[in-house]
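In keeping with the milestone schedule agreed at the kick-off meeting, the structural modelling team has produced records for the first pair of proteins. Each record is given below as a sequence line and a structure-token line. The laboratory manager (R.T.) confirmed that both were archived under the project's standard naming scheme.
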Amino acid sequence: MHATITIKWGRAFFLSLAMLPMVMQTALAGDPADVPGIQIRYGDRERDTTVSAWFIPKIDGYIDDLLYTELLSEYQRKPFDYILVGNIYGGQPDASIKIGHFIKEKNISLAINGLCLSACANYLLPAAKMTIFTEKSVVGWHGGMRYMAATAARRKELATHFTPEQLQQDREKDDNFFKAVSVDTKIYACGLLLPDMQRGARKSFYYTPEAMATFGIRHVTFLEGPAQWLARMSTIPGHYLAQPCKDEDLVD
């Protein structure tokens, strides 16, 4: 199952870039479908031509090459400055890295209004020019190509899914991406050191805004406030607060 794109259209005089966080706060307080404007699913070419000038693609599902192709197609047709993340549960690393490079090169910002997990947190969030976290946002990491798992047994198991050459190539792409976006690769790894992360799968971790800044993610806005966002993260089962770590603490 691949991700889907929904296009959010709005009136030009509503927005300037400086106003966008304030407008987002109002528009995203309810369901994503409540964003002012006309909702058009990707593939539906019927549009109200009197309402144009700006639009925000909303992505949901699983990141793959089709999503990458659709985002590029929409941008070529009409450039956009924001991507609205509905619920992204993860995705293919290669496709996610390509979307991350696209976001970085085009200076696109994110508004996260749901789940941004795994590949979304690894590659879309670090690439964004800035990120708005709404009252529905959840961000979670659980490892990546360079640091794949918490335990030696799990790392060995995951490595069997790749040839040594493929693993090396994927890690080089991963390293090059994080260098390009000036974010520390350890952002998706330090939480693996938590005892809770070593006791089973389907768990994830998050950081304080201050910790995210130490990795290189600095331009963030929390609509409910940082303290309230952290308090809400702490209520999610299987989701643990992590701390920055050192290179020597990790095993790739």
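The second protein of the pair:
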Amino acid sequence: MLRTKNGNSLFQRFANNFNRIQWLRSQLFCIWLESSSRNLERSFAMIAFLAYLVWDLVGYSVLRDVLRLIDY
């Protein structure tokens, strides 16, 4: 079996590098998953804000309704 300078076999070295690559791929996937969920949350927030603006432009003011409820 072929050996490297530190005594490890080439297969062992290949296996270690493969494990490192697999670990890196899993970490990158987790980072991508987090960022995509943050983008999804931002998209929902933008849609909710636009819906609120349209609701307010139509004449249903949430702030006005709340102020009426507390008799301001």
